[in-house]
Design goal:
4 strands; binds zinc ion; flat; 5 helices; mainly alpha; about 170 residues; two-stranded antiparallel sheet
Length: about 170
């Protein structure tokens, strides 16, 4: 017998809450999982686009924190340079007569955009040495161009330093 006139008929007042919480609890991990899957796809995309910059950060730690092997440093630095010159997402930055610098997307500092006249324009200008200043102005006038150019410079310095270390030891 229940004491003090408790009524046992009907659902316990806590039962609906518990079942509700259970429903909620099973839904949350599903949502989180789905979010992780989505984020992973986006992160993968970002990784594919920006791996060179991540490598720059690793390179920094490789030099100053964990003292990696010079051979590893040389190869990582070379990869950074290749990435900046041929794969980093930057604006084309070719000098156009009407609109100033071309704003089309380019992959890599040297490759230029899809326009035939802009393809490899920076590379062609670099071959003619008197045009280096023009390339510099074009590249350094955009933020991502700055990032790519500075990373390329850092990569070159790092590769040379690691190569010297290799030879010296
Ligand atoms: Zn262009």
């Amino acid at each position: 017998m229940p004491p003090n006139g408790w009524v046992l008929s009907g659902p316990h007042p806590l039962v609906p809450q518990i079942t509700q919480r259970r429903c909620y609890d099973t839904r949350v991990p599903v949502d989180v999982l789905r979010g992780v899957v989505m984020m992973k796809a986006a992160t993968k995309k970002r990784l594919a686009r920006y791996w060179g910059y991540i490598l720059v950060i690793i390179l920094y730690f490789g030099w100053f924190e964990i003292h990696l092997d010079p051979v590893v440093l040389v190869s990582m630095s070379s990869l950074v340079v290749v990435y900046c010159l041929f794969q980093a997402p930057v604006p084309c930055c070719a000098l156009t007569r009407r609109y100033g610098y071309c704003r089309n997307n380019a992959i890599g500092l040297l490759r230029g955009c899809h326009l035939e006249a802009h393809k490899w324009q920076n590379l062609r200008l670099l071959v003619k040495q008197q045009a280096w200043a023009q390339v510099g102005r074009g590249v350094f006038h955009s933020v991502s161009g700055n990032a790519a150019a500075l990373s390329a410079l850092a990569g070159i310095v790092s590769a040379s330093a690691a190569a010297i270390t290799l030879v010296a030891h």
